[in-house]
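Researcher: Next entry in the queue.
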Amino acid sequence: MTSIMQSLNHDISRKEKFHGKKSWRQAMNAVLNVKKPKLEKLSSKCPFVIVGAGPSLDLNINVLKKNKDKVIIFACERSIPTFKHHDLKPDYVTCVENLHEVNNYIEEYYEFLKDVPLIAPFSVTHLLAKKYLGPVIFTNNTSDSAWLEPVNSFTTKGGACVTHYGFYVAEALNASEILLIGSDLAFKDGKTHSRYIDGDCSPTDSIKVKGFYGDEVETSSTFKSYIDIFSAMIRETKCRVINATEGGAFIPGAMHKSLSEAVSGLPSIVKNKLYEKVDDEQIASFYSKLINQVEESVTKIFNAKRNIGKIEKRKPVHFFGFLKKNIQVLLNQCINTKVLLQYNEIRTNYTPRRFVKYSEAVEALANEYLRACEFILALNNEYTSDDRAGYLIVSSDMQSRAWLKEKYPNIKFLETDDDSSLSDILNVISRGKIKRLIVFNGKIKPDAWLIPGIECIDIKDPQKASRNFQLENYSLAVKNDEVLALIASNCGNTSVSCIDSYFED
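Model: Structure for this entry, 505 residues:
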């Protein structure tokens, strides 16, 4: 019971922490990704190699290359630069990130990967799914995406990192054994990744754990939690697991061998496709029905709100029982978890004395469900139509708002705070026919520039030029030409212009 409560509290705190950002973004990605043709798995029985991006990958990538015909290779997205350097194409790429920055990791390798299928949960950033040149295979890996089962019933757990995810997918595909390489989960000479990969970070909470060779190695509390999760996964699986990382941390429960030893004696295999295409008409029908159900839910919730005063005081029933189960699962991903828990607690422990609090909890949850419905329906809109020309200032800085409005008195601006929920921002965009967002120094909590068809102009101060996002529909601007050259040198490949150029018309 204690472990269940700890798990529940962890989930609650996670949802609370990212309410208005991460959970909304995951829902947005899933809704946008479901519009694309999807792929499903076919079973297979052969050895899989899950490839992380740790420093030891440099030691055994050539061994993997020599034995590529003996195993199915799942490569996490961060390991791709190493694969490219050694001219070795993996069989599949795996990715779990819902952050847009993941696109920057492998965008330059899309041509190299154009024949390699990408396997990812529905919540993966829709930018990656949109830009990737090869086939994209989506999986369900949390209860949040259970509403997608009619078009993809292949369900796995997600774990805490991409290698956990790759492990679960391989296990679900009936792997005969799973080999781990590049899963160092430790620091080597201060490095956390292969030499061909950017993004190393120094340990801020260095701890010591048992190493692959029985020695002690330096790791972090985060990596230690990944090790513990791997160990639990290995205890639960019926599949043989070999840690062939040849460096880094020891993973309890796994056999520890060199990659050469692990693949020695394995026969060559026929690599049949592990997926099949889902019918486009099935996807279109599912999506159309989903939107209709959300629209019907809006009407039902409004009607229910009008009847709150008619609730039976003696023993009220579940007030939201009229919501279809799949829609409720989708909406619950988008709402404030605390509001949902308060409603469930009062309903479960109800007495007539708590009737007022129960009514308040019902109304609060109804409002959350309405906002979630509006969010899903707003995502269904097309934001590329010619009549969209409005500007939305997304900033809590009144001085910055006043400066922009004074500089361009003929422009009609709508305004909202940068800590508004993604739902609220999206609703303003939809109703105000907004084409461009104006932000300052990248400060916008829900990353609303990820909405397809919406442009974002990020006005930078010279000292804050380093934070920029190399994405389509995102561009940098400065207040005047004097700082243009200064700021442009710090912005990588992102274009930067004077703000005047956006209002010349």
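Model: Residues 288-379 form one domain.
Researcher: Noted, moving on.
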